[in-house]
Design brief:
The chain has strands at about 1-5, 10-15, 20-25, 30-35, 40-45, 50-55, 65, 75-80, 85-90, 95-100, 105-110, 115-125, 130-135. By secondary structure, the protein is an all-beta fold. It has two domains: about 1-45, no CATH class; about 50-135, Immunoglobulin-like. A hairpin with a 2-residue loop joins strand 12 (about 115-125) and strand 13.
């Protein structure tokens, strides 16, 4: 049996007549219960990485986005930006927050004006989706 503790960046409690559950973003507590009949992992783990949610065209040049999680901005790098690239930043609720043409190899996508949340950044080439990233702002 082992335990790992960490920090919580967000969360809430859901309560009903039959019970309750606490939800968190970030690794608060991880505990593994071991018995001769099996193991149960208790807790939640949140990886710290950029998630590529979708790729529509494999012939696209290298596109990278970092850091993640991010507080004030993420840096977007697009190799060979000569073609018509753009991006749109969406809140997790689907509201468009930012819509820009990618006109240089490295661009900063601002996040400092938005509250702590999850965001989707969609990269377009010639108005077609080529990549979708999930960004965490803890």
């Amino acid at each position: 049996m082992f335990c790992i503790s960490g920090f919580s960046s967000s969360g809430f409690d859901a309560v009903s007549e039959t019970g309750s559950v606490s939800l968190t973003i970030g690794q608060v507590f991880y505990h593994q219960w071991t018995h001769n009949t099996g193991k149960v992992n208790e807790g939640m783990q949140q990886p710290y990485e950029i998630f590529v949610v979708g790729v529509a065209d494999n012939s696209i040049p290298s596109i990278s986005l970092f850091p993640n999680p991010a507080q004030d901005f993420v840096l977007l790098k697009v190799e060979n930006e000569g073609t018509d690239f753009s991006y749109s930043l969406f809140s997790i609720e689907g509201k468009i927050l930012e819509d820009q043409k990618i006109d240089r190899e490295e661009m900063t996508v601002p996040l400092q004006y938005y509250s702590h949340n999850l965001f989707l950044l969609i990269i377009y080439k010639d108005n077609k989706i080529v990549k979708t990233y999930k960004i965490i702002k803890p």
